[in-house]
Amino acid sequence: MLTVIENISEKIADVFESLGYKREYGAVSVSARPDLCQFQCNSCFAAAKEARKAPFDIAAEVAEAASKQEIFTKVEAVRPGFVNITVTDEYLVSCVNELISNGNFGIKQVGAGKNLIVDYGGANVAKPLHIGHLRPAILGEALKRMARICGYNAIGDVHMGDWGMPLGLVIAELYVRHPEWKCFCDEFDPAVDKVEGITVDDLNEIYPFASKKSKEDEEFKELAHKMTCDLQDRKPNIFAVWQEIMRISVADLKKNYGKLGVSFELWYGESDSDKYIPELLEILDNKGLSRVDDGALVVDVADDDDKSPMPPVIVKKSDGSSNYATTDLATILQREQDYAPAAIWYVVDKRQALHFKQVFRAAKKSEIVNADCDMYHLGNGTMNGSDGKPFKTRDGGVMRLEELLNSVVSAVMEKLSENAYASEEEKLDAANKIAMAAIKFGDMINQPTKDYVFDIDKFISFEGKTGSYLLYTVTRINSIMRKAGECGEKISGIWSDAERDIIIRMLLTCDVFQRAINEKAPNVIAENAYFAACDFSRFYHDCRIIDEADENKKSSRLALCKAVNDYLKMQLNVLGIETVEKM
């Protein structure tokens, strides 16, 4: 199915060709001046250079010839050489009905048959999620959903931090507090014995305590280092303690990510890549890429055209241990062997840009990943408070994600207090969905790489560029459809500018999603959804719908309402936002 722009471009290309010019000059785009026309062709300037004519003369030729085609209501040459194009309402109506029946709003399946890994979340085992985990989680989830609607087999991987010194610190502190536990005895048999009860609250308290302690107590630091080594050597009793920590932590992480509407197909961590490290190091050695530098094993990744220093990647530290670069490269090797991905996208803080540039170069140089694999780091900005600094608790600490979510839900509950809900349970369900919409849309309306200010009052407002406004628009359409009882089957005509604007916006869906996937930019979808809601609001205020006397108009407008409802819900779903029936 050709998009509207592709179809119109074909028609204009036919005209250029019939006049003796190249077909490629027929490219059409959305008008930058919608008050003058709907579409425009700007290629007469390029054609003029080749033909040695004035651009306006070519534009005039094209406009005159194109005007004879039935789908155009007006084609006009405008100085110095633009072709302004307006199509007939009949053409728009036929296109939008075809688009609606398509079931996917014409979004092209550019990723069909391709595997895509989206690495996001970045949770650490034995630590609670904090607000720094918010942006990677919701941006990554949206990217995955965007990719899926464009045909990719998109796979989300949480890629947990579960194998380094932080786990050694936790296990060491458990040992100090509970030396009597059988799991800390060499006689421990993991096939028979169980690890004593460890709770989520224990883990949340222990890690920061142990981390601080290791900076002040050298003996404890050495113990933590030994526990880390024992873990990575898979010493049975220490490995069993780690497995229990993993069981408890992952269950808690799934619960908290679930509140965000974020899910992962793979719950892999650094530990899963550990067994690939020997193979990785062997590949680097066989290809002559690794060398010893001051006791460490490194890989040079600098290019001759680098404008700033590019340090080598350390793949094995001088003490023989691995680091983030090692496990990231081993994970790439694992992913290539398991999925042969066409792309791997990472949603991680933008301050990690150098790390990923080094890792990607090492992966391509060593050929552990296909040369055509699109390896991309979407470096997200920070979520800031009203002072412009990273969001903190009142006492200046890092806020737990659960605390943030609860505070927004409470604010929405207060806002809904005067609304008539059938039950408190129904109101709480709506409040949770509105809160998530407010948080997610408040984030994703911004460019992912930019910092933004978290403003609860603004985000939960039912007016303005907010997720709450979008949900309110959906509930308004739901109300219209409930009152109408039946919806029209097809859009049969256009009787107002408002209807025409909505239809054109829906017809440009494929182009919007193509731009969003190319730029890895959920904000493009968020922006389009917001303007679609604005278009509907104008239509709602300008046009009679339920009380329209003309049955043909009424049926058509109700069909348009349903189409817009489906259109908004589709985009909100891509952004990971659930709708509500009423507000």
Keywords:
single chain, 583 residues, alpha/beta, Gyrase A, domain 2, Rossmann fold, 4 domains, 4-stranded antiparallel β-sheet, 13 strands, globular
Name of the CATH superfamily of the largest domain: Isoleucyl-tRNA Synthetase, Domain 1
Taken as a percent bin, the fraction of beta residues is: 5-15%
> Mind summarizing the main beta sheet?
4 strands, antiparallel
Q: Estimate nothing, just give the exact number of structural domains.
A: 4
CATH fold annotation of the largest domain? Isoleucyl-tRNA Synthetase, Domain 1
Neighbour order of strands in the largest sheet: 1-2-4-3
Determine and state the CATH class of the largest domain.
Answer: Mainly Alpha
Residues in helices, as a percent range: 40-55%
Number of helical elements: 21
For the residues shown, what is the average pLDDT? 94
Given helix and strand content, the structural type is: alpha/beta
CATH arch. level architecture of the largest domain: Orthogonal Bundle
**Low-confidence blocks of residues:** none
In total, the number of strands is 13
* Shape assignment: globular
- Please compute the radius of gyration using only Cα atoms: 29 Å
What gap, in angstroms, lies between the N and C termini?
38 Å
Topology:
Layout (H helix, E strand, L loop, with lengths): L3 H15 L10 E2 L8 E3 L2 H8 L3 H12 L5 E7 L3 E6 L1 H14 L12 E5 L14 H16 L3 E5 L7 H13 L22 H17 L1 H15 L3 H24 L10 H4 L3 H10 L3 E4 L2 E4 L13 E4 L7 H16 L3 E7 L3 H14 L7 E7 L2 E2 L16 H15 L8 H21 L7 E2 L2 H4 L7 H18 L12 H11 L1 H11 L2 H21 L8 H24 L9
Parallel strand pairs: 5-6, 5-10, 10-11, 12-13
Antiparallel strand pairs: 1-2, 2-4, 3-4, 7-8, 8-9
